[in-house]
Design brief:
The complex is a heterodimer of chains A (236) and B (731). With 236 residues, chain A is α/β, with parallel strands linked by helices. Chain A has one domain: Class I glutamine amidotransferase (GATase) domain (Rossmann fold, 3-Layer(aba) Sandwich), CATH 3.40.50. Chain A contains five helices and eleven strands, in the order βαββαβαββββαβββα. The radius of gyration of chain A is 16 Å and the shape is globular. Among the domains of chain B are: 1-40 and 189-367, Phosphoribosyl-aminoimidazole Synthetase, Chain A, domain 2, CATH 3.90.650; 375-421 and 557-731, Phosphoribosyl-aminoimidazole Synthetase, Chain A, domain 2 (Alpha-Beta Complex). Helix content of chain B is 34%, strand content 24%. In chain B, the strands form five sheets. Chain B has a seven-stranded mixed sheet. In chain B, a hairpin with a 6-residue loop joins strand 14 (426-428) and strand 15. In chain B, helix 6 (96-112) runs parallel beside helix 7. Chain B starts with a helix and ends with a helix. The chains are: A alpha/beta (236), B alpha+beta (731). Chain A binds chain B through residues 9-10, 12-13, 15-16, 19-20, 23, 49-51, 53-56, 109-114, 139, 141, 143, 170, 203, 205-206, 209, 211-213, and chain B through 144, 147, 151-154, 236-239, 241-242, 329-330, 415-424, 426-427, 429, 438, 440, 553-554, 642-643.
């Protein structure tokens, strides 16, 4: 089993993801440079957080044109797993690999803090080790995480159970008080309809070691790793 | 002849300095040469007014210390921890967002230039009153600039200070500290040596921004209505991020002989200082410098402070290998010259030699020791008599009034705009005391703090500076770390005015004496003079940035109460003192000393006790008593957690003293602890052994912030309400 972490110029959570996968999870992990086309046999590709190409235009708007994204599109069609975190989520949306858009935060500025999330769907390879409705604690750090999509599309997303994480209070309260960025219906993370592409604003790699104050993110990585183990790589 | 003297004066060189330049060269200087001398000899680069006093600073301590060109550090285990603080005051006052942004960029490159990976930034900020429109604009702009640059560049902003006071109206202070880590055997040097080696220019293109940033902007006072905005640089954090990665990659090849940031004084500074440090010469061909715009003159290229640029000295024959790395990261990488044996900095532009200066003369600015005189205000402001001060009748009212002081409220609105977690090393998050960072793969960790109280330093620069050192050391000890080294950022007014210069020298002596006493080397620093506006000078602010080592990072504690039922204890003496306090300022509109009593011996004993208590695991939380006194230290411990906790405290043991002094006095050498019941006697015994006064204040618990004096309730306020007020002052 092999994971790959994509490095765009301006990625800044690439090493954090690499560290958690290779050292904490003890998984074979490789770097994938933005100009590469070869995904080096990875079972899962991680698009990390940061400011790809500086993000001086709309976040993720330039990254979608990088050579590696062409390969990742193909990889997704073949049933490969992709995890987009923060800027990675923004890139997935810009690339059309997930539906919706991320607008600037409601309060107009960057926000970095711990948030509580409710795991809305535990029947995905990314979340199978969580219990239904479990409340977890994972930090966010972004300027554009305000999820938006037209009403009809949202209904479709809900019907397919593609909303995987919602922001909530410490006891699972799903109200506006606990919405850090103005996201529609507190959406924090969504998956593709086959649940092989996951995009999320919170940073699970920042919550994967006890010393950092939460290990809830580790469960996400562990979910996918156990799924891949049981399904021998999982490629169709 | 007259023309060149006029240029010299316009660029900020004094008449006698011009004469010295003529002497050095043995001829009339060229405009480019004058430009180069003016920036290199400016206060900001050459420290002519301050340099001689640094001899007072200790260079040795508990851990081996390192001293580099742009940054210094300490060695622990097999790593070097490099740190440095820099000011970007005038640029931030003029153009808050870009000024603050480029301040971060500059200090990060200082760390990078030593071969270390930058792992954390800290901002020590001071502004005019929040209710003042311009000060609010500057404050918000600076925060925006730090977020804009710091978040993108991928170095977490994990701590700092924020302070508002009329003394900083029209001249804010933005001091940025960066910490980096490198393998101790792999540090880089800022040298150019080895005749025939290549001088490589990397990073951003050179433009006309920031020309004279260090000489005109940083080394003169603000006059009314002056237009200095063109001297402010523009930041590009994306390029900086790529520059960090590419530079570290290039250094890892082993073919980079030397490297230096092109910061203040740009190409002039890096070329001449690298040549001087390598006892060699450098020849540069400016036609090969990547330019942002056409037609730039030689003096503009040599003075430009365009950001995100570094100068490298590369082993001959390896230049293509190194260029490839920078090209991969999308950066400029041009061969602009070579190392010579001439000992001179030779600049060629459009085929002509436009400057030819001995490197060691260019980098040895004159030293000035202007007259100094004790300011007359000191006697007046140090005559506080407590007898004439009325006691509060309603303590709750006092607490609520002080709570809305922007100097005592929560800084959450600020630090949440900064990515303080990237790189996943932040163990103690902002707002809870000193910052604690782990080092991946190590059991030990790093603790960092920045401290200085401007009012203390105004009332008594020598003691105020000593107290800043002591406070920083106590902050680090209170999370379990052993203080290890200091960087300082000395912000003062015009040194050519005797009263300002006196403040400066007193503060330097204070820092030197306190750090020598504690065994702390001063490894790096920065001086920012001319912090004045047309109405007068700022308060003296010798900001102390301190780094400590915590042996087992898992043992680190913060200052926040954790659980109901824990015992609350005060270490240190309670005295009837109010000098310099925020209470006097906010409630009585008084800024008066004498400063509270202060003993280096007591501080040292307390530091040692804390390190022992925390490494033994006997303490749940610890925080030093500072601004706002005991009451606000308690309040922060209650409110700074995710869910606020109440406390029940009885101050009856001190009821023979003035109650406002007990609650709000800012006497040093005191620490608030919370502990589990079972550790109580152990802690009491250990405190006694070290001769540190120990007193039980009460317990954590309940919904209220409850302070009693015997049976009399002084304060009883619900913590949920307090938290809301406390967190909404800045937003």
């Amino acid at each position: 089993m092999r994971f790959g972490v994509v490095v765009f110029p301006g990625s800044n959570c690439d090493y954090d993801c690499y560290y958690v996968l290779s050292r904490v999870m003890q998984i074979d992990t490789v770097w994938l440079w933005h100009e590469d086309r070869d995904l080096r046999g990875c079972d899962c590709v991680v698009l990390p957080g940061g400011f790809s190409y500086g993000d001086y235009l709309r976040t993720g708007a330039i990254a979608r044109f990088s050579p590696i994204m062409a390969s990742i599109r193909k990889f997704v069609q073949e049933g490969g797993f992709v995890l987009g975190i923060c800027n990675g989520f923004q890139i997935l949306l810009e690339s059309g690999l997930l539906p919706g858009a991320l607008l600037p935060n409601r309060d107009g500025h960057f926000v970095c803090r711990y948030t509580y999330l409710k795991v809305e769907n535990t029947d995905t390879p990314f979340t199978r080790l969580f219990s239904p409705g479990e409340v977890i604690r994972i930090p966010i750090a972004h300027h554009q995480g305000n999820f938006f999509m037209p009403f009809a599309e949202l209904e479709e997303l809900k019907k397919n159970r593609q909303i995987v994480f919602r922001y909530c209070g410490p006891h699972g309260e799903e109200d506006e008080r606990f919405n850090p960025n103005g996201s529609l219906e507190n959406v924090a993370g969504i998956a593709s309809s086959d649940f092989r592409v996951l995009g999320m604003m919170p940073h699970p790699e920042r919550a994967s070691e006890a010393i950092l104050g939460s290990q809830d993110g580790k469960k996400l990585f562990l979910s996918l790793i156990t799924w891949l183990k049981e399904n021998q790589g999982g490629r169709n | 002849m007259e023309e060149i003297e006029r240029i010299s004066e316009e660029l900020g060189l004094r008449k006698e300095e011009y004469q010295k330049v003529v002497e050095i060269l043995g001829r009339v200087p060229t405009p480019t040469e004058i430009a180069m001398f003016s920036v290199e000899w400016s206060e900001h680069c050459g420290y002519p007014h301050s340099r001689r006093w640094f001899e007072l600073f200790p260079r040795q301590g508990h851990f081996p210390a390192l001293f580099g060109e742009d940054a210094g550090g300490i060695i622990y285990d097999d790593l070097a921890i490099i740190f440095k603080m820099e000011s970007h005051n005038h640029p931030s006052q003029i153009e808050p967002k870009q000024g603050a942004a480029t301040g971060i960029g500059g200090v990060i490159r200082d760390i990078l230039g030593s071969g270390a990976r930058p792992i954390a930034c800290f901002d020590s900020l001071r502004f005019g009153p929040l209710e003042d429109r311009n000060s609010r604009y500057v404050f918000r702009g600076v925060v925006e600039g730090i977020a804009f640059y710091g978040n993108c560049v991928g170095v977490p902003t994990v701590g700092g200070e924020l302070y508002f006071h009329p003394a900083f109206r029209g001249n804010c202070l933005v001091n940025v500290m960066c910490v980096g880590v490198a393998e101790k055997g792999k540090l880089a040097q800022a040298v150019a040596r080895g005749e025939g080696n290549i001088v490589l220019y990397v990073g951003n293109k050179t433009g006309r921004d920031g020309i004279g940033g260090c000489s005109i902007l940083a080394s003169q006072e603000f006059a009314d209505g002056e237009e200095k905005r063109p001297s402010v640089q523009i930041g590009d954090p994306f390029t900086e991020k790529c520059l960090i990665e590419a530079t570290l990659e290039a250094l890892a090849t082993g073919f980079v002989v030397g490297v230096k940031d092109m910061g203040a004084a740009g190409l002039t500074c890096s070329a001449s200082e690298m040549a001087a440090a390598g006892k060699s010469g450098v020849e540069l061909d400016l036609d090969r410098v990547p330019l942002r715009e056409e037609g730039m003159e030689a003096w503009e290229i040599m003075m430009s402070e365009s950001q995100e640029r570094m100068l490298l000295c590369v082993a001959r024959g390896r230049e293509e290998e190194i260029r490839k790395i920078f090209k991969k990261w999308g950066l400029e990488a041009e061969i602009v010259g070579k190392v010579t044996g001439s000992g001179r900095v030779t600049i060629i532009h459009r085929g002509e030699v436009v400057a030819d200066i001995p490197a060691n003369e260019l980098t040895a600015p004159p030293v000035y020791t202007p007259p100094r005189k004790r300011p007359t205000y000191l006697d007046e402001v140090n005559s506080l008599s407590l007898q004439s001060l009325p006691l509060p009748t309603d303590y709750e009212n006092v607490v609520l009034t002080m709570l809305s002081s922007p100097n005592l409220c929560s800084r959450r609105w600020v630090y949440e705009q900064y990515d303080h977690m990237v790189q996943t090393n932040t163990v103690v998050l902002p707002g809870k005391g000193a910052s604690v960072l782990r080092v991946k793969g190590k059991k030990w960790g790093i603790a960092v703090t920045t401290d200085c109280n401007p009012v203390y330093c105004y009332l008594d620069p020598y003691r105020g500076a000593q107290m800043a050192v002591a406070e920083a050391a106590l902050n680090l000890s209170a999370c379990g770390a052993r203080p290890a080294g200091i960087t300082d950022c000395l912000n003062f007014g015009n040194p050519e005015k005797p009263d300002r210069y006196w403040q400066f020298v007193e503060a330097v002596k204070g820092i030197a004496d306190a750090s020598r006493f504690f065994g702390l080397p001063i490894v790096s620093g920065n001086v920012s003079f001319y912090n004045e506006n047309p109405r007068g000078t700022i308060y003296p602010v010798p900001t102390i940035g301190m780094v400590g080592i915590i042996e087992d990072v898992e043992q680190a504690v913060d200052g926040v109460f954790k659980e109901e039922g824990h015992i609350v204890v005060l270490l240190g003496k309670v005295r009837e003192e109010l000098g310099g306090s925020e209470y006097l300022r906010v409630i009585h509109n008084l800024e008066a000393g004498p400063l509270p009593s202060f003993s280096l011996n007591e501080e040292k004993a307390l530091q040692e006790l804390l390190i022992e208590l925390i490494s033994g695991g006997f303490v749940v939380s610890a925080s030093d008593v500072s601004e706002g006194g005991l009451l606000f230290t308690l309040l922060e411990a209650c409110l700074a957690g995710e869910c606020p906790l109440g406390v029940m405290v009885n101050v009856e043991p001190w009821n023979s003293l003035r109650m406002d002094a007990v609650l709000f006095g800012e006497g040093r050498g005191r620490v608030l602890l919370s502990l589990r019941e079972e550790n109580y006697s152990k802690v009491a015994v250990m405190a006694q052994e070290k001769g540190v006064p120990f007193a039980v204040l009460g317990r954590v618990g309940g919904r209220d912030f409850l302070i009693r004096n015997g049976r009399e309730v002084l304060v009883a306020l619900p913590v949920l309400d307090l938290k809301e007020r406390w967190e909404s002052v800045l937003s």
